[in-house]
Design goal:
Structural class: mainly alpha
Oligomer: single chain
Number of domains: 1
Strand content: under 5%
Shape: globular
Number of strands: 2
Number of helices: 9
Helix content: 40-55%
Strand order of the largest sheet: 1-2
C-alpha cells in the first residue's frame, strides 16, 4: 500500500515514535521505500523503513510482519533509538559504501537521499497533520501499540535528552539546533 506523508507520520507516531523526530523518520522512509508498505529490495530489506532480514531475529519480525506498517515502524523506532540514530539506513549517508550501518548518525547527512526529503516532509506536515491510512480496521496499524510503560520510558528519555541538550557542544549542538528548526517547521 502506498502511503502519503501524513499517513506515514501517523504510523510512526501511533507506534511510539517521537513527534520530535517524525519529520526525519518520514524522510528516511521516503528515501528507503517511497512510502510503500510492501517494498522489498534485492538485498532483503522490507517495508516502509526497509528493515533488513538480518535484523528480524532481535526485532521479533517475520517477512509477513515486516511488511505491515505497525511492526515495521516499531522496528525502525527501536533500530534508530526513536529517531536519534539513522546510521543503519544507507540513504542517510552521502557515502553509504564507507559508512552505512556504522556509528552514530543523529541526522541524515546533507546531500544524502533522506536529507533531500526533509523540507518536503516538513512542508506536508505543516499543511496536513498525521492521519491514519485508509482502510485501517480497528487499531491504526497491525500489531501491538506501545504499552503505557514503554510510552512513559520514551517520555523519560526525551526529558533526559532535553536536560542534557543544555550542555551540548560541537556536532551534538548542531544536531540539536537542526532538530529544533525542523520541529518548529512542523508546528
Amino acid at each position: 500500500m502506498q502511503l502519503t506523508i501524513p499517513q506515514a507520520a501517523y504510523v510512526w507516531e501511533s507506534n511510539g515514535g517521537s513527534k520530535r523526530t517524525v519529520v526525519l523518520a518520514v524522510a528516511v522512509s521516503m528515501a528507503e521505500s517511497g512510502l510503500n508498505t510492501t517494498a522489498v529490495s534485492p538485498s532483503s530489506d522490507y517495508g516502509l523503513w526497509q528493515i533488513n532480514s538480518s535484523n528480524f531475529g532481535w526485532l521479533g519480525l517475520t517477512v509477513a510482519s515486516a511488511l505491515q506498517p505497525g511492526p515495521n515502524a516499531r522496528a525502525a523506532i527501536r533500530m534508530s533509538a526513536n529517531g536519534d540514530n539513522w546510521a543503519p539506513w544507507c540513504t542517510c549517508w552521502t557515502d553509504p559504501a564507507a559508512n552505512c550501518g556504522h556509528g552514530n548518525l543523529p541526522y541524515p547527512q546533507p546531500g544524502s537521499p533522506a536529507y533531500s526529503h526533509i523540507s518536503e516532509v516538513a512542508a506536508a506536515l505543516h499543511r496536513s497533520p498525521p492521519q491514519p491510512p485508509p482502510h485501517s480496521p480497528g487499531p491504526p496499524t497491525p500489531g501491538h501499540p506501545p504499552t503505557a510503560a514503554q510510552s512513559a520510558l520514551i517520555a523519560m528519555v526525551d526529558d533526559y535528552k532535553t536536560y542534557n541538550n543544555a550542555r551540548l557542544k560541537g556536532h551534538a549542538r548542531w544536531h540539536r539546533n537542526i532538530t529544533q528548526v525542523v520541529a518548529k517547521m512542523v508546528e
